[in-house]
Amino acid sequence: MNIEKLFDMQRGLDRYIEEGHDLAGKNLFDQKVLALLVEIGELANETRCFKFWSTKGPSERSVILEEFVDGVHFILSLGIMGGFDQAKPSFEAGNVDQAQQFILVMESVHAFHKEKIKSNYEQLMNRYFELGDLLGFSPDEVEAAYIAKNEVNYERQKSGY
Ligand SMILES: O=c1ccn([C@H]2C[C@H](O)[C@@H](COP(=O)(O)OP(=O)(O)OP(=O)(O)O)O2)c(=O)[nH]1
User: Which of 76, 96, 103, 149 is a Cys-bridge partner for 10, taking CB atoms 3.0 to 4.6 Å apart?
Assistant: First the structure.
């Protein structure tokens, strides 16, 4: 995965969205942190990994991957805002299950929100990409899905979404 390229694409999209909504220069940190938490919740819902009370299976892989890369967008965006866009993720998950990894990711979001420092950002990025590994996505698949969704995001902005 070419993470520098994804940071560049994210920078362009963020600028485009902010200019289009007259938000240039506005501090959107809290909104982006909440957006990321919501995306993580939506992702967990699609995997159904915590629904021990149900026999229904997860959503289609492509649906889960698209939710996953929505979160990638907000993680990159937060890294750009904080000046941490040199970060490089690790991809290998530890010995935890999906539900545990979701909780680790959410804890990292809160830690980064409390203290906007490089080590907290790196932990968040690593844990999120490790979650992708646990969900069965390769770095190249994540990159391709990110690029596709980035394009969709431009189209949605252009169509007044
Ligand atoms: O400053 C921003 C704001 C948004 N996005 C992207 C991230 C994500 O890929 C998408 C927002 O998520 P989604 O497509 O789920 O939008 P929604 O408004 O929640 O969609 P829906 O109404 O379909 O649930 O916009 C950015 O990259 N930068």
Answer: 76
Distance 70 CA to ligand 1 centre (A): 7
Ligand 1 pocket check for 13: Cβ under 6 Å: yes
- CA of 119 from ligand 1 middle (Å) equals 26
CATH architecture of 3-20+29-158: Orthogonal Bundle (1.10)
Q: Pick the residue whose CA is nearest to atom 1 on ligand 1.
A: 14
19-42: per-residue pLDDT in tens? 999 998 899 999 999 999 999 999
Amino acid identity, position 14: D
Q: Do 158 and 17 contact (CB within 8 A), yes or no? A: no
ipTM for the assembly:
0.95
pTM value > 0.95: yes
Which pLDDT tens digit goes with each residue over 56-109? 999 999 999 999 999 999 999 999 999 999 989 988 888 999 999 999 999 999
Domain residues of the chain, as ranges? Answer: 3-20+29-158
b/e burial code for range 59-89 (CB count within 10 A of at least 16 → b): beeeebbbbbbbbbbbbbbbbbbbebbebeb
- Does ligand 1 come within 6 angstroms of the Cβ of 150? no
